Amino acid sequence: MKYSYYPGCTLRTKAKDLDVYARASAAALGIELEEIEDWQCCGGVYPLGSDEIATKLSSVRALNAAKEKEQDLVTMCSACHHVIKRVNDDMKNVEDIRTRANNYMELEEPYAGETEVLHFLEVLRDRVGFDELKKKVKNPLTGKKIGAYYGCLLLRPSKLLSFDDPENPAIIEDFIRAIGAEPVVYPYRNECCGGYISLKEKDLSKGMCEKIMASAEGFGAEMLTTACPLCLYNLNKSTGAKLPVVYFTELLAEALGVKEEVKEEVQK
Amino acid sequence: MSSEKKQAELIKEISGVNPLKCMKCGKCSATCPSYNEMDIKPHQFVSYVINEDIESLVNSKSLWKCLSCFACVERCPRDVKPGKLIDAARQVVVRQKDQNYLLADEIPELLDPELPQQLLVSAFRRYRR
Amino acid sequence: MQRIGVFVCHCGSNIAATVDVSKVAEMSLMEPGVVHAEDYQYMCSEAGQAKIAAAIKEKNLTGIVVCSCSPRMHEATFRKAAERAGLNPYMVEIANIREHCSWIHKDMEEATKKAVILMRAAVAKVNLNAPLQAGESRVTKRALVIGGGIAGIQTALDIADAGYEVDIVEKTPSIGGRMSQLDKTFPTLDCSACILTPKMVEASAHEKITIYTYSEVEKVSGFVGDFTVDIRKKARSVDMNKCTGCGVCQEKCPSKKAPSEFNRGLNTRSAIYTPFAQAIPNVPVIDREACIKFKTGKCGICSKVCQAGAVDYEQKDEIISEKYGAIVVATGFDTINLDKYDEYAYSQSKDVITSLELERVMNAAGPTHGHLERLSDGKAPKEIVFIQCVGSRCSDDRGKPYCSKICCMYTAKHAMLIRDKYPDVNVTVFYIDVRTPGKNFDEFYRRAVEQYGVNYIKGQVGKVIPQPDGKLLVQGSDLLDNRQILKEADMVVLATAIEPNPDVRKIATMLTASIDTNNFLTEAHAKLRPVESPTAGIFLSGVCQGPKDIPETVAQAGAAAVKAIGLLAKDKLMTNPCTAQSDILLCNGCSTCENVCPYGAITYEDKEVNDHGIRETRRVAVVNNALCQGCGACTVACPSGAMDLQGFSNRQILAEVDAICR
Amino acid sequence: MPLENKEFKPKIVAFCCNWCSYAGADLAGSSRLTYPADVKIIRVPCSCRVNPMFILRAFEKGADGVIMCGCHPGDCHYSTGNYYARRRMTLLFSMLDYIGVENGRTRVEWVSAAEGVKFSETMNSFVEKIYSLGENVRLGDLRCKS
Question: H or E segment at C326?
Fold first, then answer.
């Protein structure tokens, strides 16, 4: 299984662990992640204005690069996933955006949403299969009670992302089960952590994160896992790391027994 | 066309939202995690656009409190999507000269060692042009 | 050459405000064959019809064109008027200049131009009309009612009381329907079972009524007055004639884990079961998917304990075929699936229930024996929150765009009953609008507020958040106070949208009855023929036509019965003379038409023909006019052009095309 | 007067079955849902009554577009009529396209008696399409050509 891979800005700096553990785990699972050359930042948030074109172009470049290689495009960060999947939908279904973006890009062959965008979790669920993953687990995280924290970007708007049930998702819980741990379902797992607002409104974000933490703790979670660097930052920052928050890829690497091998790379 | 009317039309165009579809059930306000911080509440965005009171809307605190978390978009039973309206209003503001909500000079004091790039990038996208 | 009269209706201002009616009349005089033209305020009125009759007599008219509303509205009226004046009714054509012209166009010049063209097309057609004679067909004096809820029961009783045989086909093991699941009814708060069960008994005891429970309609053929219906009687595995209804088999059955349909899955039932104690017939069925005997071959306890020897594991589905003159659809409703509304935590908490489930909880025969308690831990709730419009009035693809109509009232009922029986329980209702049109309805709702202190909050709920201690945090809007509310509750009740029974689409297809995008059956006319389907001989009773409460359902059930009785009371029906006809000189005997005919109306016979002096016997198509319904499939399929449709002939339609493109 | 200056008013024929689409058109009317007056409706008992000959004749006589509306598949008043119609029209339209009557000028649409909105939307979009295609000059009676 060979995929084009879009890491995104934060995975090369503050969220190295999300990236390094993902690549190590992918290798252990026989998945090849080919990083797109010269990828550019997706912008972090999807430009909602229907007249915004330039802000969508970096995603189109990544999508087109994957198309040229005839590969599906894998993302790791929730925000990149959200932005690129939605831009892809625009390129597929919104004639005006497609025309104007292509006019600007002057590609050899116009891009019209041909690439399939997959979050790494989707690769695990739909391509590898959680049953198959379970078989490859070497160090099952038995006994660990882990709460999945989805946040907003992975799930909504559900019609466009078609990722999971936006109100009662199961993908990360199924993942947690596959690596041998026990998922803890709590109601705030799909509520927003405050997102980018934490830059200027720290208190607002703090309040939200505290609610999330308290809810997860109340239902018995010992730790939280997420796919988003911003969620991780907000949760840690606002609640003083009441419960540890780790990337899902770190759990995966641990379960597959490859965590130690790459630990140094993370700390670099 | 008055300038407020023009701006109302612009907001409708940028957002792609038809505010007349709203049945005023209040589910957006019931669902909004930033509700208490907002002076104009999510369900009111719609009436401000319908009544073309854009002046109040663009000067509201709410503009900068919306998280773009799409909870209102997802749960709206009438496909109105108040979150898109507020984002369009924000666009109307930041596209004007010198109306950025976030200035480069502010950044250093907002930083801390763990702060992910993603946060800066996103904030830049939402807060300024 | 025809002598045609053109009559242009003003329809008050409905047509005349947008179409220059006198201009249309004036222009018609330039059309071939038109010898008379006039316009009048209301052509359908007595005076208008008199004008037509007078013109027929004075001007010896042979054809009529009425430029007016849709033929679906008044074609029959004008045909009858012409007939009374001595003209063949099929010499009348309608130009629809209201629905298809004046009502949709604003510019007078443009609309008048279009009206003239529509008039021309109708005149061109009438020029080629030929007098037609309607045939007769017989009426089978027996009615079928599909669905045995309160709508079906009432319709059947009314038809039977008029002296006609009625069969009820009910899919589940007992009649009674949704109403049998209700505890109390608004706005009088009488007990549902107390008013329904006597009707069920009356229906089952009525000598004119036959009830087929655990049965489904399998196939429908024929047409008004003469339907043939195949009914599948599913294998009950219990002999209806032997069973005494003692109930021992249900007691002894070791498989007791099947979810009880009657209690909405809130508790379980045995594999051999009657849905509820007052079931009619009081004969159990074996749920073969849950039965140990059917799954493993072992067990057989029910058969051993049955003293009447009624249990029959070998029983098979049986198909009976019966003839009916009229069919009434009364298939009712269900609540929508709430999978897409998990922000209300329905799938995540046992204490979030639908209103229909609450009916079962409040009912003495329900899973909690009528005690108001949380289904998770059996504790008595202190705070109950009701959420209105869950899935109703939604224009996204999660819910239904319509108002379910009954929820405001039953929520007031529930709130009132709870406050009455458990005064220490607080009740809060989140609503968008309270809709209470109906006799004594608003008074009822106000009583809930004023007398019983139910707390109504205007605003929808955004999320129900289960708490670690088992409580439910309800996050909602208070739009009047402009604040967001966080309310802790022990139970949340969802006023879930209702939708037509999912089976109705299949049934509508069999009956060729129209159905709308929400799966409600369409009525022949929204205002004037609300209980009839556009398909002749099919009538509508209850929620299958649109959301309604019990009194409305019973009223509509009676109305549907009257319409069915009106049909059954006739000995003969006039048939549509617009049927296919084969020109035996052109027919080459290929059988193509026979294959496309959905009614088996075409057969082949050897006939003597005289083809330009050559006499010979040929195998040619013959149309049975009593069976032909006039769809015209054969006319297009016929390779030699021998088949044509009377009233819609090739030449007539081509003349219309020519007139429009002129 | 030069031809180009003449305002283009298309001639559009709509065949509607009596049970669904004609009733849908009536509903569009009683709901006051507008569509251009260029559309003229011919009532037929069923879409399967529409002979390809009728459509060819319309184009021969100068129609710029022909649309046929019937009950939704599975909902035909006569059970199967619209299936025949659908197959016939598929064949006819591809032939028409071949001889120069573009696919955009012909359309089949299923409109139920309850779909007044769909009827008017369909007519609006069809008329818009015909306007964009312009006058239909390709099919005529060859006998009249010099």
Answer: strand C326-329
